[in-house]
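Lab meeting, action items carried over

1. Structure of the two-component assembly. Owner: GW. Status: complete.
Input record:
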Amino acid sequence: MRAIIISVGDELVAGLTEDTNAAYLARRLGELGIEVAAHHTVGDDRRAIAAAIASAAAGADLVLVSGGLGPTADDLTRQALADATGCELTLDSRRLADIEEFFARRGRTMQPANRIQAMVPAGAESLPNAMGTAPGIAARLGNASVVALPGVPHEMQRMFDDAVAPRLAGGGGCIVRREVHCFGEGESDMAGRIADLMERGANPTVGTTVSGGMVTVRIVSRSASRQEAERLAEQTVVTLRQRLGQLVVGVDEQTMPAAVGELLRRAGCTAATAESCTGGQIGWMLTSVSGSSDYYVGGVVGYCDDVKRKLLGVSQDLLSRCGAVSEEVAAAMAAGCRRLLGADWAVSVTGIAGPAGGSEKKPVGLVYVGLAGPEFQAVHHHILPGSREIVRLRASLTALNHLRLALVAKER
Amino acid sequence: MRAIIISVGDELVAGLTEDTNAAYLARRLGELGIEVAAHHTVGDDRRAIAAAIASAAAGADLVLVSGGLGPTADDLTRQALADATGCELTLDSRRLADIEEFFARRGRTMQPANRIQAMVPAGAESLPNAMGTAPGIAARLGNASVVALPGVPHEMQRMFDDAVAPRLAGGGGCIVRREVHCFGEGESDMAGRIADLMERGANPTVGTTVSGGMVTVRIVSRSASRQEAERLAEQTVVTLRQRLGQLVVGVDEQTMPAAVGELLRRAGCTAATAESCTGGQIGWMLTSVSGSSDYYVGGVVGYCDDVKRKLLGVSQDLLSRCGAVSEEVAAAMAAGCRRLLGADWAVSVTGIAGPAGGSEKKPVGLVYVGLAGPEFQAVHHHILPGSREIVRLRASLTALNHLRLALVAKER
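Predicted assembly:
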């Protein structure tokens, strides 16, 4: 099966709004084993949309269109689809009732303009929108299925899940998606460990994506029964945990800050941060989780040596002798922070984020991570590649990962 | 003039890599007054690329292609362009010398595979790449100009500046771009103040984009002489500064953290941060600027009340009486932080980032910003819309903006 994705919107064509829908749909189709041949983006122009749909339907089995289903004069996907299929728009009274109810539930009256949203080309099917007023449309054009989805990402995603994915799921109508977040190894090394699971056409399908040093393994299982699809996906999660061991940070919503938080919560422990080159990024990450005040007490950004000395108790002798970016100072920062803030654990980072400040002995990217915990202390060092921004991001994630591994080891 | 943009790459079609090139090129063309009719994304497939180029050239005056110019077997834009134009690939010896020199400068030997990069369809022009090994190609196909650019964003952008924009600049061969970063008002309000400057077809062209609460006004001037283009752009920068006053944070590279840093540097002052709901984000932003250790000493993340009390000296009485999210606590955090870290200025933030923790009197999004400086103290409050992530981002930028305005006022 071959698919083409069309995005509709003047703002997208002008580059003023980022199109996340096309990439999202492409990934979802890929997970279902459907090859995407091309994406097209066209403006709010009825003829251009109709031409794009007709041309795509001539070269693909499946055409997914997003955008242009709103109630205003520049929303023209519905009309263009009618033009392309050569069918008149007709009213779907069930959808009209849905839209009226959507407004009624919010204590508002439906505007006449919204009536157009209940129209579909004759013979096409209207798809309910669980999140908004714009129903989708499923039509046939030649040998192709054409599905028009709303442009608002969360509405589009929900409709894809509810009405599109099940039809595409081959033998099984139920699809379960899981994500396993990993850290500590490159994508190609990780993919090597699970190559057999990543074979094309397998069920579940398994693939990897990378973002900011985190490698996420995506699992998609299909089956006629939800229970079986869930079992298949869970089985793969278990296999991945066995194969990847401590590289696995967490599953689904459990990204790095949530995973560290969960370990702290389980241990009944608190944590604090002492940051130099990351400037507060680790604290910011930990507090991205709602409820993190249960285990994160706070931190010190010791950007200048004076703060490292006065607040964190790093001695001037150590700073002069070893330099602010050193194993010794990282250890002292963590120990001092733990003492100062009265936390069970403290993690520290000191490093050279660049682009200036590097030397032959201490190059840009050199980062020390210090850990202090109950009868525990350690310092790790890394040389991280990339721009100032990337070095800092990786340093923060690396620091959290060391804290995670220390907490995991304590659990055993 | 009508343009179509084509992006080439299997990773893009599969949605695994974000395509930033198409939107970038669309914005740049828009600034030059060139209408973009559509974007197309195709995989690393010679026939598909050739078909996309031929079809685009039939419907547009200008076709910009990015990607597929590398030296490996899956880089096929060069061959596809030869197919589309019906011309054989021939060697451009000048470009071959460029590529050999690129490797020689890095002490490396050119691999035979790179030789293909010096090939262009007969009759087409090879465009030098100032940042990498992949030259671009400018060709004619029917009535359209087709320009192939490398896929690596910074190489593509530089080549667009050097070789494409000047040809498209109409009367004037020189183009000057400036950016004016603003904060404190919504995009539509701001656009209202400068509507006359934003008229289509003007020189310079003026447009706005928004990202994370910052509104950036983009200026593009065109003239036969660089000096005149620079004068026109500078004149518009001056006009914008007059119209927008203190909404203007900075120009070009001077985004919020750099603007605050420049003001501190000019005043010979240091600053410190006391963060609760932002968890370290303000410190992280300030230290995104290389050299920020000249004026940023560090900070305290006082996420739990205990740290606010012990480190920042906020009294238990105040915390009990007013609550951690209050004008009084914001003021005490800033004053305590300034004292503790011995900085000239301190900025504090305490608020309710959500989604939990809101009440009728103190809703999610309520944020207090405290400032303490030389004979100066102030507290501002805001109710910021959006998700936890967005509230925290806006709170951090708002805090830096208050510090900026206080520093500007002191300069007068």
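2. GW to write a short summary for the group page. Key points so far: Chain A touches chain B through 66 residues (CB under 8 Å). Chain A has 14 helices and 17 strands.
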